[in-house]
Amino acid sequence: MSLQPQAEELLSFWFGPDWDRLPAHQVAERQKALWWSKNPETDALCRTRFEPLVQDAAANRLSDWADTPRSLLALVLLLDQLPRNIYRDTPQAFAFDELARQCTHLALAMGVEQELPAIARVFLYLPLEHSEDIDDQHYVVQLMGALAKAAQGEDKPAFDGYADYARRHLAVIERFGRFPHRNRILGRASSAEESAFLKQPGSSF
């Protein structure tokens, strides 16, 4: 158990009650609206409850959260997932991605994912899927693929879906070297090929 109450509060918010004891598919079904939907009320709730912690994480004031698997997972959430809610459609949504990526690589080097439920590993790995580095993309395809291979029964469809999304992210980076849907937000000029791609369904994640 993490010694940081705020880390546990965040994990309970993100994964819901008893998330570390329930089957993965139950957690995924219960939390999918929070995780994957765009909802202004959810974004506002994330901002009210967790923006100060995001800023603390970005300023390296939560370095002790790297001491346990659960609090390190919470740190990754603060730097990767929460900014996408709190700062949606602004450059700040991606401002902490490199820090999140560093935390994920640290976690993998330490082997802490072995102490986390499979559904939690998805979010531990996601900073690599959000990375515009091709090596990160290949790595996360392997990681998500391993989760999908290990999943059984009712859990398997969810993990197959996560693995598929990882492959789709890789395909975009292989083609463009970056995520074109971020160009407008980050003030990057889109190429003609990217502009054409962005008109296709499913071009944004």
From TrEMBL:
SUPFAM superfamilies reported in the protein's UniProt record: TPR-like
InterPro entries according to UniProt: DUF924 (IPR010323), TPR-like_helical_dom_sf (IPR011990)
Pfam families: DUF924
Name by which UniProt lists this protein: DUF924 domain-containing protein
